[in-house]
Structures are given as structure tokens and as C-alpha cells.
Amino acid sequence: MIEASQLNDDVDESEGLEEIQAAAIGFLSLDRTTESNGLPFILQAYATWLSHFTFEPLRIINLARNDTLRSYVSGEECRQIMNMMAENVHEVTRSAAYNPVQSSSFSTTQAMLQRRLIEARTRIGTPGKPSHDSIRPLLTSPSKWISLMSKVGSLSSLLDFMQLVAPVFRRACPDPLERLVNLPALFATLDVTLQYYSTADVLLSVLTGRPMFFRYDVYFTPTVPESCFFLVDAPGARWAYGVPDRLVMTFAQMNALFEDFGPHVPTQVVDELEQEINSMKPIIAPSTEPIVVVGRMVVQECWFLAALIYLYMGLSGDNSTDIRVANVRTRFMKLLASVRPRRNPDSFLVLPMTILGVAVNDWDERDMIRRRMLGVSECTRPGRMGNDLVRILDNVWSKRHPIVWSDLRQAYWEVAGV
Question: Which domain of life does the protein's organism represent (predicted)?
Fold first, then answer.
């Protein structure tokens, strides 16, 4: 059983909670008995969430603070939603045993967000359609809710909510509706809500084998060159999951190829993607904590190796015993063994470890992956996406033949119904 305190055990060794809260709250008073101090407590809740559940909280805190301030002054209904979401965050971060089914705040918040999204979907489907600038603010709270659901909700409930958000997201993007959303251009903006949704869309497609909600244009332009995504302070959503933004674009391309060709992508294309992935390097922001630097490097390296497993098994049809897969698996397991089990970085390794699991044949290695995943509180509790992923790997490993990529897709359907 994971104790509630374990949710907090690594915060002091990542970006300090006090530092993050200071950046979010600033000079604002924290006297909750004063009605006018609702804003500081919302900021405190979001700062606590970022410190627990994001890869680079200090990198995003100022944008999150400004976004919160804009939303807070935009209307009473927005403030009501923000207060309810803050209450949910306080409940989640106080105890690893939090259960959304038993939380009236969770169900009330979700119902209000769903109603607003349905209203927005109606607006964008009527004559005189609103501009993307007027639609974009409607995604602020849903994007935060997607983040929360990825930690406390099931995979199927997360995908259902993202499906509801999808047409609103597309209308909020600046690209003309007859064209694909350009991912580099989207990542080059300061719009965190659009970046977060598109990143989640791409990564969930990699994990589940389901088509993305949208296909994306991944071509660079003179105004948004590839080089800008190799910078430490590069735009994008690396702060959230720890996936380098340049790799997210490659994943989007791979997802589209997999949808078109399955495991029979032309060899030349596979070779080009292999070269592209192998050329990528971790992008590490400075930190005063060496353990943070090492953890962030390991997370990004593991994502590069997960991309190669997806390339070989998903797009090329290799099975778990093929030599290319075996070589990557060996590198991945050594990298995983190089850092001791802790919530940070293990909570950011759950997704790439799920991909690694498809390539593992040895039961000792499988047990190591399973134990690392179950060391993360979200993976221990039934009804959460993390626990879904553990059970999905158990299903994959129950197959007696060498594992193929389609076993993972079948497991998602059998275990999670997605």
C-alpha cells in the first residue's frame, strides 16, 4: 500500500515546492478567511500540482500564473470553475488514496466543464462561427482537467473527455480548418493549453495504437526552424511529460504512418526515422540538484529508446526477439537500472516503460518494470490510468509467443476497453 506521504517524498529534491509557490503567489496574502484571497489559494493549488506532477515546474510557472490571472478576471463562472478545480487539486495532493468517485467536487467540476464544452461545440457549428481567439480561453480549464484526469482517472474516461474537447481544440488553433494543424508552429506559441492537448493526443496514440484525434503537419518553416526546438528554453510542452518536443513531432509523423501502413512502412522511411531519432539529444535545464539533472536526462533518453521500439515493432513489424529490438531493450534496461526507484523520475517513466514492456521477454526484467511502475502511487490504485497500464502489460505478457505490437493494441481493448 502506498502511503499518502509518498506522494510528497521527492518534491524537495526536484524543484522546491516553496520556490514554485513563491513564483506563483508572489506578494499575495494567504489568509483563506478573507473572501478576496480566493486567488492566492487557486495559485497555491496550481503551484502544488505543478511541483508534484510536471517534469519542469519552474519552467512553466510564470506562464501558468499569468494564465490563471487572466482567467480569474474573465467572469464569475470561470472563477467558480477555478475554485472547484483548486479544491480537487488540494484533495489529490493531500492523499495518494484520493478517489474521484467519492469526491463531490470532482463530479461537479466535470459536469460543469462538460456543459461548457457542449455549448462551445454548438457555437462553433453555427453560422457566423466565432474566431479562434474567442474560443481559445474555453480550453484553459479543460486542459488542466485533462492533466488531472491523467493522474486520477481511467484511460477510457480520459480519452472520452479528450474526444469531447477535440472540436473545440481544433477551432481554437490558428490554422485554417481545411489544413492540418502545424505542430512546430503550435509549439512555438506561448499557448500552453493548445500545446498540452496536442502533446497528449500524440502520446496517447503512441501508447494505445488508436488514431490521433487529429493529424498534424510536422514540417518546419523559416519562421519556426527545427533548431529552435534544441534550445534549453525551447517552446513546447517538454515541461509536462519530459518528452523532448522535437520527438513529439516525430511521434506524430510515426502515428500517421502507422495508421496508413501498419507494420509495413517503407524501409527507406524507417531508416530516415531511425537516423532522426538517433540524432536527438536530451535537453536539460539547469538545476542546483544533481539528482534532478540525472533524472531528467534518463527520462528523455528512455523516451528516445521507446521511440526506437515503436519504430521497429510498430512500423517495421519486428517482434520482441528480433535483434534490433533486443539491442534497444538492453540499453533501456541498463538506463533504468542506473537510477534508483523514486517517484521522481519514475512517475515520468511510466509511459516509456509501458512501451519497453512490449519488448521484454525475460520474467526478471518484466518484474523489474512492474515493480518500478507500482512504486508510483497512480499505478497502484484501480480505476486510474497508471493502473490500467500495469494491467495492460500483464495482459501482453500472458501471451506465449514472441510479443508483436498488435498484442499491445489487443490488450488495451481487453483491459481498458479502448
Answer: Eukaryota
Given 51, 78, 98, the domain boundary residue is: 98
What's the length of the chain?
418
Q: What is residue 182's three-state secondary structure?
A: strand
Question: For residues 101 and 168, what is the distance between their CA atoms, to the nearest angstrom?
Answer: 27
C-alpha cell of 245? 518536443
How far apart are the C-alpha atoms of 66 and 61, rounded to whole Å? 9
Closest CA to 158 of 169, 170, 147: 147
Point out the domain boundary residue: 80, 98, 116: 98
- Could you tell me if residue 112 is inside a domain? no
What does the pLDDT look like over 129-173, one tens digit per residue? 667 777 888 888 899 999 999 999 999 999 999 999 999 999 999
pTM for the structure as a whole: 0.90
**d(C-alpha 107, C-alpha 299), whole Å:** 33
Domain total of the chain: 2
Does some domain include residue 123? no
At 289, list the grid cell.
540538484
Nine-digit cell string for 47: 503551484
